[in-house]
Write a structure and sequence with these properties.
Length: 387
C-alpha cells in the first residue's frame, strides 16, 4: 500500500516509541490514525486523512497547533496496547499529549475530518461581559468559572489548557479585568458551581500555574465519581478500557443510588482509575440483567462487567458492611472472580489447629453468582444491538 502515501504533500507524522511522547506532548491538538496495513478500511482512509491534513495545515501553519500523525499498529504493537487500540482504523484525539476519551466517530471524509479539527480548535471558554451572566447559569450543568486580571497571563493559560481537555464534561466561563474585579478580592481564582440551584460553590485553593493540580481538581469536579451509563455513551465508556462496577436501579430509586455513591466514595476512592463506577436504569438495561438472572423487580443490583464475564455482588443490603464492596473489586483485580468462575470456590487456607470460625476471610464457597461468559465485547450494549 506504499503508493497510497504521498510524502511530498502529506503532513502526516509517523509515530514510534522513540518520538511519540515528544511529538504529542508538544502538540496543542493531535489527531492520530491507528491503522494496520492489512486492513482494507485503513487503506481507504490513508489518502483522505492526508488530504485533510493538507487542508488544515493551510489554516493552522504552526507545526505545533495541529498535528496529524499515524501509528502502524502491526509494527508498533506496544503503542497500540498502550492506548487500548483493538480495531482499525481508529482515530484518536490528543491535547498536549493527553488522549481524549472520545474517539473520532464522524464521517470518513476530508470535509468532515477538517471540520472536526476546526471545532476542536474553537475556544472552549465563554467570556462573560457582565457578572449577571454568572447568576443566570444553567445549574443543571457543571460550571467552572475563572476570574482573572488579564487574559495574557500564566494563570489563564493554565485554565485554558484544562478547559481544552475537559470542555465536554463541564461548561467553562471566564471574566477579566474590571468585570471580574469583585470576585478577585484575593487574586485570580477559579470557582466550581455544581448542579443544583442551592448547591454551594467550591473554590480552587492551589497554585493557578500548576497544570497538574488545576487539572486534577477540575477533573474531580467535572467527571462524577459515579457516572450514568446509557446507550448513547456506553461504547465510549467501554473504550476507556476499564471494567465496570455498576449499580442497576430503578430511575426513581435515588436512595439506592445515593447509598452506592457514598460507599464508592468511602471504600473505593483509591480504585479510581482502575475501574469505572457506573449506574444504569433497570428498565432500559433489562437484557444485561437477564444475563445475571435478574429482572427489574430484583433491583437494586450491583455487578461487575469485566467485558469477559459479569459477576454479581451477593446482596445489595451488604453494601454498607465495611470493606465488602472493596473486597468485591479487589477479587476482580486479583483474578479470584475469574478463577472461581472457571474452577469453583478457592480452597480455604486453615492453619493447623486453627478453628474455621476464627477466620476473618469470606466463607469458603463463592459469594458470587457466576454466569456464562458474554459473547459480545460490549456486554451492557447487547440489548441495543438486539433491539
Amino acid at each position: 500500500v506504499s503508493w497510497l502515501f504521498s510524502p511530498a504533500r502529506s503532513e502526516i507524522t509517523s509515530l514510534d516509541s522513540g518520538n511519540i511522547d515528544d511529538i504529542l506532548n508538544n502538540a496543542d491538538v493531535a489527531l492520530v490514525n491507528f491503522y494496520a496495513d492489512w486492513c482494507r478500511f485503513s487503506q481507504m482512509l490513508h489518502p483522505i486523512f492526508e488530504e485533510a491534513s493538507n487542508v488544515i495545515k493551510e489554516e493552522y501553519p504552526d507545526k505545533n497547533q495541529v498535528v496529524f500523525a499515524r501509528v502502524d499498529c502491526d509494527q508498533h504493537s506496544d503503542i497500540a496496547q498502550r492506548y487500548r487500540i483493538s480495531k482499525y482504523p481508529t482515530l484518536k484525539l490528543f491535547r498536549n499529549g493527553m488522549m481524549m476519551k472520545r474517539e473520532y466517530r464522524g464521517q470518513r471524509s476530508v470535509t468532515a475530518i477538517a471540520d472536526y479539527i476546526r471545532q476542536q480548535k474553537s475556544n472552549p471558554i465563554r467570556e462573560v461581559q457582565d457578572l449577571e451572566e454568572i447568576s443566570s447559569l444553567d445549574r443543571s450543568r457543571r460550571n467552572i468559572v475563572g476570574y482573572f486580571e488579564q487574559k495574557d497571563s500564566d494563570n489563564y493559560r493554565t485554565f485554558e489548557r484544562v478547559a481544552n481537555i475537559l470542555h465536554d464534561d463541564c461548561v467553562f466561563l471566564s471574566a477579566f479585568g474590571a468585570i471580574s474585579k469583585a470576585e478577585r478580592f484575593s487574586g485570580d481564582n477559579i470557582i466550581y458551581k455544581p448542579p443544583g440551584e442551592n448547591a454551594p460553590d467550591m473554590v480552587y485553593l492551589g497554585s493557578l500555574t500548576n497544570f497538574d493540580l488545576v487539572y486534577a481538581w477540575t477533573q474531580d469536579k467535572c467527571v462524577p465519581l459515579v457516572r450514568e451509563i446509557t446507550f448513547e455513551n456506553g461504547e465510549e465508556l467501554t473504550e476507556e478500557g476499564l471494567p465496570f462496577l455498576i449499580l442497576f436501579h430503578m430511575k426513581d430509586d435515588l436512595e439506592s443510588l445515593e447509598k452506592f455513591q457514598q460507599e464508592v466514595a468511602r471504600q473505593l476512592i483509591g480504585e479510581k482509575g482502575t475501574i469505572n463506577f457506573l449506574h444504569a436504569d433497570c428498565d432500559k438495561f433489562r437484557h444485561p440483567l437477564l444475563h445475571i438472572q435478574k429482572t427489574p423487580a430484583d433491583c437494586p443490583v450491583i455487578a461487575i462487567d469485566s467485558f469477559r464475564h459479569m459477576y454479581v455482588f451477593p446482596d445489595f443490603s451488604d453494601l454498607s458492611i465495611p470493606g465488602k464492596l472493596k473486597q468485591f473489586v479487589l477479587d476482580l483485580h486479583s483474578g479470584k472472580l475469574h478463577r472461581e468462575f472457571h474452577h469453583g470456590p478457592d480452597p480455604t487456607d486453615v492453619a493447623p489447629g486453627q478453628p474455621i470460625q476464627d477466620l476473618a476471610s469470606s466463607p469458603p464457597e463463592s459469594s458470587f453468582q457466576k454466569l456464562a461468559p458474554s459473547e459480545h465485547r460490549y456486554t451492557l450494549l447487547r440489548e441495543k444491538d438486539e433491539l
